[in-house]
Amino acid sequence: RKEVEQDPGPFNVPEGATVAFNCTYSNSASQSFFWYRQDCRKEPKLLMSVYSSGNEDGRFTAQLNRASQYISLLIRDSKLSDSATYLCVVDLSLSGGYNKLIFGAGTRLAVHP
Amino acid sequence: DGGITQSPKYLFRKEGQNVTLSCEQNLNHDAMYWYRQDPGQGLRLIYYSQIVNDFQKGDIAEGYSVSREKKESFPLTVTSAQKNPTAFYLCASSIEGSNQPQHFGDGTRLSIL
Questions:
Q1: What order of strands is seen across the sheet that includes strand B76-78?
Q2: Which of A52, A64, A99 would you mutate first to test chain B, the one with the most B CBs within 10 A?
Q3: Number of C-alpha atoms within 13 angstroms, CB side, residue A40?
Q4: Closest CA to B100 of A29, A101, A87, A61
């Protein structure tokens, strides 16, 4: 089983749609969680951290379910510019203060007019 | 502007040749990382460094070497022992400690001639 699993997609949605991505992780000791966005042939960029209580940033909402080891990202009112690959990232927080990030392979989103 | 600079953007390696990828950051981050990304896969950790003059192997260190002589710099050498070096290489840095997201440079694409 992969340490972080995501549906690879692609998710093809029209502008204005609401789309949700899911991610599961295998290590119950994981402490921190993030969503990154990666455009084609570019570097990943931090989209948002994911907090236990869930958090929202504009059109983006992240949820964490520790019991099920499951993270989600909801995008409302999709824009053409949201087209990208979304990476689910889990922090293993190893001893010595080093945070080892485990990256999912990503879910590709394509928003069309 | 603070950030992480990787160079070159594109690099070609001849068989039997060692090549060095540069990574410089002016974010005053203690921790730095090197990842490799292959198409359709998540990022895989090659090496990481938490402080100057110290570094640790990641999950796929064979065929690679690093140094950390200065806080700002973490160059990666792809040696001739790395038989499949074609990939997108990403350097990242973070504030030391757990629960910290990592921030990426814009990457170097390495290909075999």
A1: B4-7, B19-25, B76-78, B64-66
A2: A99
A3: 6
A4: A101
Q: Measure the CA–CA gap between B39 and A41, rounded to whole angstroms.
A: 10
CA quadruple B61, B62, B64, B68: dihedral positive or negative? positive
Residues of B in contact with A106 (CB under 8 A): 42
Other beta carbons within 10 Å of A98: 18
Output the CA–CA distances (angstroms, integers) from residue A64 to A49, A87, A88, B40, B96, in the order listed: 10, 15, 12, 25, 24
How far apart are the C-alpha atoms of B72 and B21, rounded to whole Å? 14
CA distance readout (Å), B87 to A60, B55, B60: 31, 22, 13
Contacts of residue A29, defined as CB under 8 A and 6 or more positions apart, other chains included, come to A92, A93
* Separation between Cα atoms, residue A109 and residue A87, nearest integer Å: 11
Q: Is the pLDDT of residue A94 over 80?
A: no
Q: Which amino acid is at B95?
A: I
Spatial distance between the Cα atoms of A100 and A87, rounded to a whole number of angstroms: 15
| pLDDT band (50, 70, 90) for residue A31 | confident
User: Over chain B, what is the mean pLDDT?
Assistant: 93
Considering only CB atoms, B98 lies closest to which of A8, A31, A102, namely A31
Both structure tokens of B77:
């050498």
Interface test mutation site (partner A, options B21, B98, B104, max chain A beta carbons within 10 A):
B98
Bridge partners of B87, per DSSP, are B110
User: Quick check: B100 contacting A, CB < 8 Å?
Assistant: yes
